[in-house]
Design a protein that fits this description.
single chain; alpha+beta; Aminopeptidase; seven-stranded mixed beta sheet; about 30% helix; about 35% strand; binds coenzyme A
Amino acid sequence: MKVSSNVIIRPLKKSDIGQLVENALAFYDEVKEDSTLGLDFKKRRPTAHVMRKWHSESYENFRKGNSIYLVAEVDGRIVGKADIESVSPDSEVEHVGSLSVAILKGYRNMGIGFAMFAKLLEKAKAKFRVIRTDVYSDNGASKHLLHKFGFKKAGTIPNFRKRNGKYQNLEIWTLLLKT
Ligand SMILES: CC(C)(COP(=O)(O)OP(=O)(O)OC[C@H]1O[C@@H](n2cnc3c(N)ncnc32)[C@H](O)[C@@H]1OP(=O)(O)O)[C@@H](O)C(=O)NCCC(=O)NCCS
């Protein structure tokens, strides 16, 4: 699938934080209607102020070189984010990166996730040896992409998340960038 030419995938900028907060809040609205949404949520929706603080911390982490962080922009709007951050910077496991990706509803299944994975993993080769990511068992699109990029399922943690009274299994997937 070819991503349409008006999608720009570029590194995070400090000025993106406002839109990332808006998107994060939109995911809180989405999960009320679609309980399969593959992101984890707090029991109470955080305020925009708290979200801004979290995103500012992520930006600082990126600025210090502890993560790779890309956004996808369509007509000036941030519609996706993908990042890999060290699981523990300045430690014996600093070479292990944790990957997460989220595309805004309305922009999925257009190849943006694929394009972000490709760019992210290319950049990751210079910084990380091992990439891990956590995905819920029912997240078909995410597992399809992981498989395409050579990730292997390392295991399953049963009953990891409780949503709407039901437990869901979490899968750990890994990619070795260097053996
Ligand atoms: C998972 C996610 C990042 C994928 O991004 P995307 O931009 O939609 O991905 P793409 O369009 O590049 O590719 C999606 C692929 O999954 C396939 N797909 C979609 N739904 C699927 C399903 N239920 N089961 C299997 N494959 C599926 C599509 O056909 C496509 O594959 P193809 O190009 O080989 O035909 C996006 O759906 C998302 O952000 N979801 C919500 C947050 C989330 O789940 N994040 C991941 C947490 S690990």
